[in-house]
């Protein structure tokens, strides 16, 4: 998987087809109120766009995350919190 850096930390998400901000795992987990393990499951399943950084750390696309089944209701409740 390749990633194109757009500017100031924004990257092009090939899943969402928009420029997105990558989130750290704990941030991502908080965003959709799931465990970190769930985030890793999404990554392993290829359900969300993820980039490996600094060895073992991942950054994930928050937009992909909120598109996952079960997270949509959460998004609707927290729309104003998300700068998307
Ligand atoms: Zn995405």
Write a brief caption for the model.
This protein has 84 residues and is of the alpha+beta class. The protein has helices spanning 25-32, 36-45, 62-66, 72-78, and strands spanning 5-7, 10-13, 18-24, 50-53, 57-61.
Describe the structure.
This protein is an alpha+beta fold. It has one domain. The protein contains four helices and five strands; from the N terminus they run E-E-E-H-H-E-E-H-H. A five-stranded antiparallel β-sheet has the order 1-2-3-5-4. Helix 1 crosses helix 2. It is globular and about 35 Å long. It starts with a strand and ends in a 6-residue tail after the last helix. The site of zinc ion has 8 residues, from helix 3.
Compute the number of structural domains.
1
Distance N terminus to C terminus? 23 Å
- Total number of beta strands: 5
Number of helices: 4
The SSE string, one letter per element, is EEEHHEEHH
